[in-house]
Design brief:
Blueprint (H helix, E strand, L loop, with lengths): L2 H12 L8 E6 L4 E7 L2 E6 L7 E3 L32 E4 L5 H10 L4 E4 L3 H10 L7 E4 L3 H6 L5 E6 L14 H9 L1 E12 L6 H10 L5 E6 L5 E7 L5 H14 L4 H12 L1 E2 L15 H15 L7
């Protein structure tokens, strides 16, 4: 090897991959470039190109104004009165460093939580930097669809947050996959899914709602303010936003409900969206998720307000 290449190899080995402000750790796994940042007392997990925050931790704050909190509202679409203690178990597909699991443990108590995370290195980092050490959490280093299909679990909530902005893995969007999720939900179970969207373009959300309605009797949508995210809820029982409002009234009168749960339910009501018109049904044979997302991104880049991205 020429001496100049030896010098560059030595310097590269000594230096990091990125030099981001606040960086406390970085590595490359078989699946991701992984970066941990510390900013103003918050620990942040970023992956790959650094778009979005995949997990966040603060020892005192549990409300991070992102999609994580909105998974908590899911079971309260059931008829009132539905109580926090009615939530018996949870599965998370896309555990990351455990933000959703920590919030759910605070709200529902130490319920069993199975967290599927395809990248085992992220689980290790979550345990070391994000205090993802709750004894009720069972982190599983597997692909979420495969792991759920081979699980014996039956859950009150299945949260899907397997997200590489702006993409969702196509095999987590199909009719066949949603049939698997329903098989693993309790009689009053609810699926909740984090989905990307662009201003004035909900085509991916619309397709997922259309697909879910072939498996579930009721599907509801909320947009998360100041983000490019929506949460889609699908319920085993027929449900309505009116149920959610009635449950919020009941939770407020109890006086012993965790405030982030009240915030989650309130936001779901405040930012609810009407059920979209039917579009495409995604199947394992036809799920053009990347095509739809690419079109959303290109249209926004050409005609959108780029200031919204800053």
């Amino acid at each position: 090897m020429p001496i100049v290449l030896l010098v560059f190899a030595f310097l590269w080995a000594r230096g990091g991959i990125k030099n981001t402000a606040g960086q406390v750790y970085e590595t490359e796994s078989s699946y991701n470039y992984i970066e941990v940042l510390e900013r103003d007392g918050y620990t942040i997990l970023r992956l790959n190109e650094g778009q979005g925050q995949h997990s966040i931790y603060h020892p005192e704050d549990l409300d991070y104004n992102g999609p994580w909190l909105q998974f908590l509202a899911a079971p309260f679409f059931n008829p009132s009165p539905y109580l926090p203690e009615d939530v018996k178990s949870m599965a998370i597909l896309g555990l990351a460093a455990g933000t959703v699991a920590r919030q759910a443990t605070e709200v529902f108590g130490p319920i069993p939580i199975d967290g599927f995370e395809i990248d085992p290195e992220i689980i290790t980092i979550g345990q070391e930097y994000f205090r993802m050490t709750m004894p009720n959490l069972n982190p599983i280093g597997q692909d979420g669809r495969w792991g759920l299909a081979h699980s014996d679990g039956n859950y009150s909530i299945i949260a899907i947050d397997a997200y590489r902005p702006p993409y969702i893995p196509w095999h987590l969007t199909t009719q066949e996959f949603f049939k698997i999720t329903r098989q693993h939900l309790s009689d009053d179970g609810v699926l909740a899914m984090n989905v990307g969207q662009a201003p004035n373009d909900h085509s991916l959300v619309d397709a997922l709602v259309t697909t879910l309605l072939t498996v579930y009797p009721s599907v509801h949508v909320m947009d998360i303010p100041n983000t490019f995210n929506s949460i889609v809820y699908a319920t085993v029982k027929p449900t309505t936003f009116e149920n959610l409002a009635n449950n919020l009234d009941h939770l407020i009168t109890r006086g012993d409900v965790h405030p982030i749960l009240l915030d989650s339910v309130y936001r779901a009501l405040l930012f609810q969206k009407p059920t979209p018109e039917p579009t495409i049904v995604f199947t394992d044979d036809r799920a053009p998720v990347e095509w739809i997302v690419n079109k959303m991104v290109l249209t926004f880049a050409l005609f959108g307000d780029l200031e919204e991205l800053r």
